[in-house]
Amino acid sequence: MNRLIFLAALIALSACAQTPNGGARPEAVSPRSDQMRPLSRPAGLGRVVPEAAKTVEEFDVTTPQERAAAAAVPVQGGETRLGLTVASLGDPSQAGFWIKTPLVSAPGKGRVVYPGTGKSVQLDLIPIEGAGSAGSRLSLAAFRIIDAPLTELPEVEVFLGG
């Protein structure tokens, strides 16, 4: 009896291996020469973080001039407050000043203020999927400008424009 059950199960399983069209696979389609294709863009400022980077200073490839420009307080007016978000450290291999946040629906320029120090940084606002109450990812360079602790999840205020 056990052999008969085993044989029936084996036959049933072998039917699962059958594929339509005798196992034929679709042919790969080569892109046409007139077809538009996306261009790859370098992350951040177009600089590459060294593969051997281990320290914060090695990962942050921004220049002192770029850091000074990002830390400059913009002229009052022209900004729209988007709200508060909890910021985690984003990908440290992506150079530049940016925040990936669900508070925006389109890329733009903006500013982040860390109430813990009162410091702010001008940066790129990059939209990500999620509810407005979801957290955001902030670049290493931006974390350093606002003097936020890298090992914590600081709450920051996000502004559009400026």
Spell out the key features of this protein.
162 residues; elongated; 4 helices; 20% helix; alpha/beta
Sheet with the most strands: spatial strand order: 1-5-2-4-3-6
Assess the beta-strand content as a share of residues: 25-35%
What value does the Rg take, in angstroms? 25 Å
Mean pLDDT figure: 80
Shape: elongated
Q: What is the count of β-strands?
A: 6
Compressed to H and E, one letter per element, the order equals HHHEEEEEHE
- Largest sheet entry: 6 strands, mixed, barrel
Low-confidence stretches: 39-43
Instruction: Tally the helices.
Output: 4
Helix content: 10-25%
Structural class: alpha/beta
Span from first to last CA? 80 Å
Task: Quickly describe the structure.
The protein has 162 residues and is an alpha/beta fold.
Could you please describe the fold and organization of this structure?
The protein has 162 residues and is an alpha/beta fold. The protein is built from four helices and six strands. The chain has a six-stranded mixed β-barrel with strand order 1-5-2-4-3-6. The longest helix has 15 residues, at 2-16. The radius of gyration is 25 Å and the shape is elongated. 23% of the residues are buried.
SSE map:
Blueprint lengths: L1 H15 L39 H4 L4 H8 L7 E11 L8 E4 L6 E7 L4 E9 L8 E3 L1 H6 L9 E7 L1
Parallel strand pairs: 1-5, 2-4
Antiparallel strand pairs: 1-6, 2-5, 3-4, 3-6
